[in-house]
């Protein structure tokens, strides 16, 4: 009788566990990842310069925690698209130089709850972080004006341990999208502080 009652108690628990893992294994069609950059989302900024130069000094790692190579377009290309859209030369002389130091996306593990507390929970298991570092330089020979601006923007999202490859790619795109938006806000703010750089 004692053994019988033990089986009666264990069976429902076993069914719950089996049901949980069966539900976790079910797959649904992946939605396309969010578009990282859209021209319409960023207003051009007319600058007192004749030309824009973009220098890419970032060598993207393709191992370890670095996952930027999975993005489409690549992080460096996204920054280039942003610069070409926003930093609009509108002057008769001088130049704006964007020196790209870093355009990375990394994915690292997060600590998980152990024991029963974490058994039935789809925990957040990874953090995806996009990081952009660049330097803006303005060289204007007329009047001898010049400026140097340091830019740094990061954005992170977390994903659950049950995430499919499509969800992971979506998180990579989302992190880059957030970093670009932060870069844009910072650039506009800092450029606006420089006398005669932003044109009406």
> In percent, how much strand structure appears in the residues?
25-35%
| Main β sheet profile | 4 strands, mixed
Q: Low-confidence segments, ≥5 residues, pLDDT <50?
A: 1-28
Distance between the termini: 88 Å
What is the number of beta strands?
6
Supply the number of helical segments: 4
The number of domains: 1
What structural class do the secondary elements suggest? Answer: alpha/beta
Average pLDDT, to the nearest integer?
85
Helix content: 25-40%
What is the helix/strand order? HEEHEEHEEH
Supply Rg.
24 Å
How are the strands ordered across the major sheet? 2-4-5-6
**Overall morphology:** elongated
Task: Write the SSE topology.
Blueprint: H1 2-25, E1 45-47, E2 51-56, H2 75-86, E3 87-89, E4 95-109, H3 116-119, E5 124-140, E6 145-160, H4 165-191
